[in-house]
Amino acid sequence: MKALIIEDREGMKTMLMDVLEKNGIEHTAVNTVEEAMATIQTDKDHRIVILDTAVSDGTGMSFIDDLESWEAEPESKKGRRQRAENGPAIIVIRNSTESVPESCIFVKAELVKPFTTSMLVDAINAALPKDKRIVDADRGRMMANPNDELVRRGITYGESYVFFQENPRTVLDIMQTFSMAGYDMLLITASRAKVARERFGLDKGAEVYTLKGNFYPLGTMIDMVRGFIEGSRYPVVALDDLDNIIDHCGMDRTFVALKEILALRGEKHKFTFLASVDGEVLKKNERAVLTSMMTLYKEE
Length: 300
Hints:
Order of helices and strands: EHEHEEEHHEEHHEHEHEHEHHEHE
Distance between the termini: 40 Å
Shape: elongated
Keywords: Phosphoprotein
Protein name: Response regulatory domain-containing protein
InterPro entries: CheY-like_superfamily, Sig_transdc_resp-reg_receiver
Number of domains: 2
Radius of gyration: 22 Å
Strand order of the largest sheet: 10-9-11-12-8-13
Low-confidence stretches: 137-144
CATH class of the largest domain: Alpha Beta
Structural class: alpha/beta
Domain Response regulatory: 2-128
CATH superfamily of the largest domain: P-loop containing nucleotide triphosphate hydrolases
Number of strands: 13
GO biological process, one term: phosphorelay signal transduction system
């Protein structure tokens, strides 16, 4: 028996695979519904499916429709019961605003983001036959709870942080954690949107503002941030390479743009701002200006 993971965000995929591996369940991971259907049709040992509703090629819920179309509806109640027992048994990972069709006989459990390792194990047990149920070796550890991970890292929603690091590794990790916790995400980067989403583990709904040209339009960038904050419930804005903006626009204009963005915060516009910059290329007074505007993040 195998498990099939339908998930296109690397952070979430890694967590799911880790839990399955620790409990001795062989698994396959795919990014799209199309890949998932091909896998199910060619290898019927995949008796469990862990399905995220947000995947690359559209809503993950379409997998349920495709599966029911492929598995022809039996006429008798006995045939329907046998089909439900034979699986595959589906565990749906969804947001709180989404719903799962109650008529689907394959859906055995639902997980609403964020969730804990113990909740994931309970869902897996609901999908497994009684004689194959597992015991959670890490029960109580909040491995898959992104809000707890933010607390562990010392991140408070509504604050601004600057990261003095040569590469944006930590910002990447924190962005993935915010994304898994269901926050609204905006990434400012020079990378292409698709590449940036994959790199930061963001779902396809996350907004990406791509900086282009030899002289970045900082006014347009500020307007983009303003619109995003005003239109989002829990906005998180991240800038993955402040050095790059400084190189294109100069130190003074970059600092003025940062001040304008941070000044958008008010009673009606609470948001988190993350900025990564190589502190080694900045002068002492330049680092001091940044830390006067934002909290210096010190990794535990």
